[in-house]
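Lab channel / #folding
Pinned by the channel admin:
"Please post every new chain as: sequence first, then the structure tokens as a reply. Keep commentary short and put observations after the output so the thread stays searchable."

First post following the new format, from NK:
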Amino acid sequence: MQTAIDDSGDLLQLAAGAFDGERDPWANAANAAALIFQLLPDLNWAGFYFMRGGELVVGPFQGRVACVRIAVGSGVCGTAAERRATVIVPDVHRFPGHITCDAASSSEVVVPLVSGDRLIGVLDLDSARLDRFTAADARLLESLAEKIVAACDWRLAGIDGF
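Reply from TO:
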């Protein structure tokens, strides 16, 4: 059974406060990952992958050790990056080409981070619970992604194209 993310208003409000006056992408991504992991139930991983050298490279996150590099088009993260669209996967074990970074993960949602025509990276959330993420969750995370994209000076991060 799907359950919408709890504390959505708190998440966006606290993120806006954390980003206020801070332009550093690494600092903002670290705080965003911590807020997501702290406020949203049933997660075992929350974090970012950023475009560097033509591939997604792990950035700030909360959870177990992560895959470090993911090719665009590979797995759920790479698919969301390639499509530049949010991908919700109710059961990662049924997703063709799923990359298992944490064997405990059962469902996933990935939101691309896009500035203008540039792909910055993705926001990735995993859950050990099947069918964890809803369309409402995706909209909330897309709002958060818009906030972090707008808050940061991406030239400071070594992201491709900046």
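NK: Residues 1-5 have pLDDT under 50 and may be disordered.
TO: also worth noting, The chain has one domain: 8-155.
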